[in-house]
Amino acid sequence: MQPVRYDVLAIGNAIVDVIAHASDDFLVQEGMAKGGMTLIDEDSAERIYAAMGPGMEISGGSGGNTIAGVAAFGGRGAFIGKVRDDALGDIYRHDLRAIGVAFDTPATTTGPATARCLVLVTPDAERTMNTFLGACTGLDEDDIDESLVASAGILYLEGYLFDEPPAKAAFRKAASLAHAAGRKVALTMSDSFCVHRHKDAFLELVDGHIDILFANEDEIRALYGVDDIVEAAKIAAQHVELVTVTRGAAGALLIDADGLVEVPASRVAAVVDTTGAGDLYAAGVLYGLTRGLPLAECGRLGCAAAGEAISHFGARPRADLKAFLVD
């Protein structure tokens, strides 16, 4: 077996977030569903960007945020994602490499621009996302590096990317390569929108290719059509080795062969922006798993990282996540 070079390899959408304050009235005016994620075209991205208030640009994307969190804990991370050879693509690559994450997927020289997500944060700290996927949609099987997949202890797949047929094929190829190399495969459902859009395909993916499943309450309900999240999580646990469900202020639950563990949410002085809370939760859990920590401790690290994420604007960690580790 090839030695483990990276703790986690994430495959996801390489997106630059543009984050700005917005009023509830603005969301209504623009016809946006508060708290959700809507896919938009390039023209809509330009129009919304012109209408929204002053924003700040931060490299994001769910899988990218998670791998940044793994690195902030001290883990070794790598990323596969598609950018264009443009300014935002250069920013994205620089930001990941600057924190020690390996990102060597070649940029595309034709087609749509690098993706961006226009994140509107209302006074209650809820975030509403409008995403132009751009170059991300070009990711396919040719971007999956067999040696890289085999060198990572856990392969982490971002549900948002599971849309176009080439990306679906890339996911299945990567999962098969990981399992052939004796590695674990994790999936985040990303959004109930994604689940409703691809429910049957997600069920097939989870049942046949996934070892570790990340979901929130809405996503796990949507996947199995069950209102009770514990019951839904137990159904999932029949198909995967570990399922974990985030519950906002109620914390998270984790279920494996040994039973159910409930972890309380971390207390924060103020909730500023919920963008990336689930991404950073996954980072803490994944880091803990790569270190062989007990399930409850993995959940605690996840909740601690999520708490750090919601205490400031942007989904990438600002504090030293190593401070949450216990010797």
Give start-end ranges of low-pLDDT stretches. none
The fraction of residues in strands falls at 15-25%
How many angstroms separate the termini? Answer: 30 Å
Structural class: alpha/beta
Determine the CATH topology.
UDP-N-acetylmuramoyl-L-alanine:D-glutamate ligase
CATH H level, superfamily name: Ribokinase
Tell me, what is the CATH class?
A: Alpha Beta
Q: State the total count of DSSP E strands.
A: 14
Known CATH architecture = 3-Layer(aba) Sandwich
What is the domain tally? 1
Major sheet: order of its strands?
6-5-1-9-10-11-12-13-14
What's the story with the biggest beta sheet?
9 strands, mixed
Overall spatial form = globular
Based on CA atoms alone, the radius of gyration comes out at 18 Å
Let me know the average pLDDT.
93
Query: What is the helical fraction, as a range of percent?
Result: 25-40%
Counting DSSP H or I runs of 4 or more residues, the number of helices is 12
Series of H and E elements: EEHEHEHEHEEEHEHEHHEHHEEEHH
